[in-house]
Design a protein that fits this description.
By secondary structure, this protein is an alpha+beta fold. It contains 10 helices and 5 strands. The chain folds into 2 domains: 153 residues, no CATH class; 86 residues, no CATH class. Strands 1-3-2-4-5 form a 5-stranded mixed beta sheet.
Length: 274
């Protein structure tokens, strides 16, 4: 689908704390990232991938900016969810449950999303580092910032430091390409200076892993990730709903015996204090 078919209006951001949130440890970007999806879903996924974190990617907003109605958009997002790119759920922050929408360019299976929910996703080791790939592609965003192989290798540790502080690829790219002087005489020196002076503060780390619940992509019911299959709960996939656990009822004789034991204990305590 050509970009001309998309709405020319800027895509809006969601309320602070909501909207698109990139999942960690993406693999290097390739042309085949969405090749397994149908053409419509691939176009929508590519559009979402280009949006910065915090963008509103609700069905209603996407339908306003893409040439599909809300019903078609809802169906497409369900298929994208089943393919492993999208999950919606809730995350507990400072005692409050916040609605989250997690996005990953790299398709993930159910086991990965279960590990993500628990907060113990292992880091992957690509052949080329995430930082190197970003720097090598910088010239595509602005040709004035084209870097050599040696310059990418030398600057990669500085970009890695941004990533350890929870910065996204978009954060780094914008820091290195927005407001460039004309002309740029030494792109590597400029990149080094900006990566150093614009380095974000260290995030406040929590001692405990985050509390997360994912939602069924079809009915929206909250659930633990290991109970979802391709983003949907068992009942939505045709499985019978689990029977409720029966409330245990103690026999009357055991209730009377338990009450008598409590009374005897209280009498004993009173006797020791007199």
């Amino acid at each position: 689908m050509a970009d001309a078919e998309f709405s020319p209006e800027p895509h809006p951001l969601a309320n602070p704390g909501y909207g698109k949130r990139s999942a960690p440890y993406e693999r290097p970007c390739t042309e085949a990232d969405f090749a397994h999806l149908r053409p419509r879903e691939a176009a929508i996924a590519a559009y979402i991938e280009r949006l910065p974190d915090g963008s509103d990617i609700s069905v209603k907003t996407l339908a306003k900016h893409l040439p599909y109605g809300q019903c078609a958009m809802r169906t497409a997002l369900t298929r994208i969810t089943r393919a492993g790119h999208l999950r919606r759920g809730r995350e507990c922050l400072d005692g409050l449950w916040i609605t989250r929408t997690w996005w990953t360019r790299t398709a993930r299976d159910d086991a990965w999303w279960s590990a993500f929910q628990r907060g113990d996703v292992p880091k992957e080791k690509p052949t080329r580092s995430r930082a190197y790939i970003l720097l090598a592609a910088l010239g595509r965003t602005d040709s004035a910032m084209s870097l050599s192989h040696a310059e990418c290798r030398a600057l990669a540790p500085l970009v890695d430091e941004w990533f350890t502080r929870d910065a996204t690829e978009g954060d780094v790219t914008r820091a290195l390409t927005i407001g460039l002087p004309t002309p740029v005489h030494h792109p590597a020196a400029l990149a080094r200076r900006r990566l150093t002076t614009k380095l974000p503060p260290e995030p406040i780390r929590r001692e405990r892993p985050p509390l997360r619940l994912l939602e069924c992509a079809k009915c929206g019911a909250p659930a633990y990730a290991d109970l979802l299959r391709e983003g949907e709960c068992g009942p939505c996939q045709g499985e019978p709903a689990p029977a409720p656990s029966p409330t245990p009822i103690l026999p009357a004789a055991r209730v009377r015996a338990h009450a008598a034991a409590i009374r005897a204990r209280d009498v004993t305590r009173e006797g020791t204090h007199t």
